[in-house]
Amino acid sequence: MQNSQHTQGTPGPRDLLTGYRQQAGNRDEMLDGAGNVKPVWQEFLDHLQRLDDVELTHRFARGGQYLRDAGVLYRQYDETVSVDRGWPLSHLPVMLSEAEWREISAGLIQRADLLEHVVRDLYGPGELVASGQLPATLLTQNPAWLRPMVGVKPANGNFLNLLSFEIGRGPNGKWWVISDLIEAPSTAGFVIENRVAMTKIFPNFFSRSNVHRIAGFFQDFQQQLFNLRGTAKGQIALLSSGPANQNYAEHAYIARYLGMLLVEGEDLIVQDGHVMVRTVAGPKPLSLLWNRVPSALCDPLELDQTSLIGTPGLVDALRQQQLHMVNAVGAAVLETRALMAFLPKIARQHFGAALKLPNIATWWCGQETARDHVIKNRDTMMVGSAFSTVPLMADSASSPDTEMPQGPGQQEITALLRRSGRELVGQEAITLSTTPTYEDGALVARPMCIRLFLARTPDGWQVMPGGYARVSAGNDAKAFAMQRGGKVADVWIRGDQPVETPSLLVSGAAENRAASSRAALPSRAADNLFWLGRYVERAEQNIRLFRAYYARINDGAAHDAPLLAFMRNHLMQDVDARPGAMAERFGTPLDMALNAARKIGDRFSPDGLMALRALVATTADLDQRDIPLEEVPKEISQLLRQITGFAGLVHENMYRSDGWRFLSLGISLERAANIAQLLSQLVGDDAPDGALDLALEVGDSVVSYHARFSILANRWAITDILGVDDQNPRSIRYHVSRAKRHIAELPGQNDSHVLSDLARKILLLETTLAASAPSALTPAMLEKVKTDIWDIADALTQAHLV
Fold this sequence. Notes:
Number of strands: 19
Distance between the termini: 68 Å
Shape: globular
Helix content: 40-55%
Number of helices: 27
Structural class: alpha+beta
Radius of gyration: 31 Å
């Protein structure tokens, strides 16, 4: 049947299995113990073997291009800097049968119920400690147990609403829980992006192979967010620690996908127990918060006083049940390594049955029997901090100081276990199963673990029918971290029957979201949009100045020519003395624009961000290349076309919301002030010959000027077209009027017959320009206009951005 797809003379399927069987052994996801392909994998393997290297390379590139276009990156850290890196997608999925997934799901749902029982007790009656099921030390010495949260009951009744578990399969074929990810389960957003990329790599196979879709999970979770909020009319937000966090890209993506506000701690204030979002329309109530900030850092008033990313008073709002949380603050105590040693016994006590999906065998060394067992079996153990919430087995590299060295020093380790056993745990070391990856034209077996997600719904816990696999960079079963070269893979749950294909776009929750779609705009986001516009416009102005300067050099002017000397002294900075001045002058504002754009990932399009990154890269390249002098204007012109293209892309693609208005205000006020500064220098009596032509060139109005005036450059004609012309998109008046229209549409600006300070300032300036003859725009008046523009910017900041 599979050969029928090949015409006569066309080679049949390749054999990818022969070499793979030898390295995979008997602990592989694709092969059973006898080396046969598991039924769930067979159809995909057949499909893969019909594709040659050229076709696969093309398909993999298509998936990678999607991820780059979508802005899916991760942050690579070292001792000095962090940089964005391409997303390391493993181009083959991990496949599980529907039957196996259901068995795993049942075990995880039971575990979720157990964890809800435990956390409810730890912050409530404390019966687990009182009855001896948990040592008191695991709370009193545990930094993840937050004493101020004791007695604080969640407003929605449940401590846990979204969970994640990392699981791995051991050599015996059984699945084990490696770690419980409770406080801020991450990478759910990346699951979506991985899935989209994989559908572009294997589109035909995916569409017909009965792979369960994941959109339904997010659809139900989105609806649950609205259910948790109840009848309250406040905002729903995701709290992030900001762009420096390695998961910020996911925070921004999932906020966009689910229609939530993305906020940081500084965006929130607490008034009379109510949490409010600082928006451009003033404080707005917040009803539900999905916290992705470490619990101890979310409130510097009652928790960690050194926190710079939290919101004072947040705990009190929770205490008064004025705020719903997706997961309770303090839930990270459930991630404590030592707790795993006691969960099996607590489960038997609570359910009357053993855990369906056990965790890795763990011993808390604060008990003599457990400590002696760890010492006796040290060669097969991993030893680490009892109170750490970093998974010991899944990625010791992320916290290298928490794992004890192997080999030499056994006596010292034994002494440490006896001396400080309460602070240590031992975990059984198991060898994880492998999954196929495609490397250099062959299948290669790599160790892997899977992250699965559970969401609480009105019908109980729902398990995402798919997940996020971490694949080791080599044979080291601990090198899963992307920082160490690890990859990620999509997890496919394949059924025997056709599956539903839900879409988030048609959900009932989407209707609820649309009803409140005049979304609140946090002041911080508006401020970054405003400055993004200003920085890009500032870079464009500098680019035009440098192009004009070097064009005159190429026309034979000397650096000490009067006009060029005037440009350096009044409009630029000693360009002839520093070879890197070009990139510095417009590279620095572009770097700052990119920094601002990164902070508003939920409101700025991936295409816009990519275009801005390309601008920054092009500018940096100017410093690295030895460009011949005669080529400089050409190079700068290419950069100018790139930056104007970026401005057009942003302008055309952005929804005409308050965010777009603040971006446009930044562009208009910066451009108007820059033109005022330019004219104030170039229309004065002391301006050298050629200054008026320079004004037209930098002001990008040469064509417009000659269409209106049949005379050579004239001072008053220049101030007409660049100063008071209301039809020229490069004139001061045009952008002041444009800014006035934007300001009139901002929240609160039309609520009273009395003009706000901001509206009054912009009206006075527009009226002054409209009533002024071109001859009135003297250098002194133009300086006054520039000052007035920055006064308007300050008033805008005070009214909406502070």
